[in-house]
């Protein structure tokens, strides 16, 4: 899977690290290097298609400004549309990021139930997959917890290859 992502600053990663002990009941806990902020999935089956898709994304984002983002709360997806559950995440507040997401949805079809209309919920995943009573208790320990707050400017976006876990290219947003 390829996507357009926004960098997660060190301060957000520190908030996530502080929460790690409360997430010990989860089967999958994201490491610092794995913490990303998904903006929009990009349809491409290979690197050749990816180059074309990335150019389309860059054209759609031409002139998109730097946007502010804020993390202040832990939230959960009890029944996410794909993957194991529950998912615990840092909720990201950013009207500007929603605007960037919408621009990308105009050139790439939104993924149903995840990206269209009000379905886009920007977040930084912390952990997922906790079963039974211990899992419910783990969710109760962090769901709705106030953190930070951490506010930052998103000054760049990058094309991300999830299979390889690497950035492919970067796009700077004008100040």
TrEMBL record:
Domain of life: Archaea
Protein name: 2'-5' RNA ligase family protein
Sorted UniProt keywords: Ligase
Gene Ontology MF, one: ligase activity
Pfam family, one: 2_5_RNA_ligase2
Listed InterPro entries: Cyclic_Pdiesterase (IPR009097)
Entries under SUPFAM superfamilies matching the protein: LigT-like
Species this protein is from: Halobacterium sp. NMX12-1
Keyword Ligase: yes
């Amino acid at each position: 899977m390829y996507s357009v992502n926004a960098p997660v600053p060190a301060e957000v990663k520190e908030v996530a690290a502080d929460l790690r002990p409360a997430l010990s009941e989860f089967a999958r806990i994201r490491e610092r290097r794995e913490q990303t902020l998904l903006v929009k999935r990009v349809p491409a089956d290979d690197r050749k298609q990816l180059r074309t898709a990335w150019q389309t994304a860059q054209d759609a984002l031409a002139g998109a400004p730097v946007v502010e983002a804020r993390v202040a709360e832990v939230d959960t997806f009890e029944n996410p549309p794909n993957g194991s559950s529950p998912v615990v995440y840092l909720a990201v507040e950013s009207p500007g990021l929603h605007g960037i997401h919408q621009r990308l949805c105009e050139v790439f079809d939104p993924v149903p139930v995840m990206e269209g209309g009000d379905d886009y919920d920007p977040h930084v995943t912390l952990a997922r997959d906790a079963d039974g009573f211990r899992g419910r208790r783990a969710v109760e320990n962090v769901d709705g917890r106030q953190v930070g707050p951490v506010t930052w400017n998103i000054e760049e976006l990058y094309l991300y290859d999830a299979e390889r876990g690497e950035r492919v290219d970067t796009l700077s947003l004008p100040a």
